[in-house]
Amino acid sequence: MRLGVVRGNVVLSLADPSLAGTRLLIVEPITAERLSSENPGGGKQLIVADRLGPDVGELIAFVEGREGANPYWPGRAPVDAYCSLIVDQIDYTPPTD
Amino acid sequence: MFIARIDGSITSTVKHKSLDGCSLLIAQRLNADGSATGEPQIVIDPMRSGRGARVLVSTDGDLARQMLRDKTTPTRLVVIGILD
Q1: CB contact residues (below 8 A), chain A span 33-92, against chain B
Q2: Cβ of B14 and A85 within 8 Å?
Q3: Chain B closest CA to A9's CA: distance in Å?
Q4: Nearest C-alpha of chain B: how many angstroms from A11?
Q5: Mean pLDDT score across all residues of chain B
Q6: What is the nearest CA distance from B6 to chain A, expressed in angstroms?
Q7: Contact A63/B72, CB-based, under 8 Å?
Q8: Minimum distance, in Å, between the CA of residue A41 and any CA atom of chain B
Q9: In Å, how far are A22, A79, B43, B47 from B78, measured between CA atoms?
Q10: ipTM value
Q11: Contact A32 B16 (CB under 8 A)
C-alpha cells in the first residue's frame, strides 16, 4: 500500500453496476521526500475506489493491483486501487545520512 | 519480493475490518547498495520488526489473504523475514 492525500472525488453519470456504493477518490501519492513535510504529496494522481469516506486533505493508504477488488469478493469489480485505511497518525523517522 | 527498511509506523481507526489488530509499518524499498528507491509503502508485519530493520517483503496477495484469514482484505505487502 502507498500513502496518499485525498484531493477530491469524481462522479460518474453511467457506471458499472458493481461500483454502486463506491466513491471514487482523486488521490495524490506521497513521496519519501514529502512524507514528513508540511505539504505531503508529490506523486502522480490516480483514482482510488473507497467505502470508508475520508475527507479532502486526509491521508489514506491504498492498495494497488488485483487486490483492490478483494473487498468485492465473491463479486467482481473493475477496481485496481482501493482505500484500505484512513491514517490517524504517522511516526516517520528515516535515517538522515 | 523486495528488500526494505522500516522507517516508521502508522495508526488508523477507520480501516477495512480485516486490518483490525495489525501492525502497520512504513517500509522504504532499497536497492542492493542500500539506497532508497520508490515511494514509502505500508506493510503488514507479523514479525514486529523494529525501526531501522532491513526486511524481506512479499508482494503476494494470496499470502496476505491467508495470513489475515479474510478473502476480502485490500492488502498485498507482508513482511516475511528480517535480514541478518
Answers
A1: 35, 43, 52-54, 61, 63-68, 70-74, 82-92
A2: yes
A3: 19
A4: 22
A5: 96
A6: 8
A7: no
A8: 10
A9: 26, 21, 6, 10
A10: 0.95
A11: no
Decide if domain B2-82 falls under CATH 3.40.50.1820. no
Closest Cβ–Cβ partner in A68, A88, A93 for B74: A68
**Per 3-state DSSP, what percentage of chain B is helix, strand, and coil (rounded to 5)?**
15, 40, 50
**Percent of chain A scoring above 70 in pLDDT:** 99
Q: State whether the Cα torsion B3-B21-A73-A55 is positive or negative.
A: negative
Cβ-based contacts of B77 with chain A (< 8 Å): 1
With contact defined as beta carbons under 8 Å apart, do B73 and B22 qualify? no
pLDDT tens digit string along B40-51? 999 999 988 889
Where exactly are the structural domains of chain B?
2-82
Secondary structure (3-state) at A52: coil
Q: Residue A12 contacts by C-beta under 8 Å, 6 or more apart in sequence?
A: A19, A24
Looking at 3.40.50.410, 2.160.10.10, 2.40.50.220, 1.10.10.10, the CATH number of the domain A2-86 comes to: 2.40.50.220
Residue B80 burial class via C-beta count within 10 angstroms: exposed 0-12, middle 13-18, buried 19 and up: middle
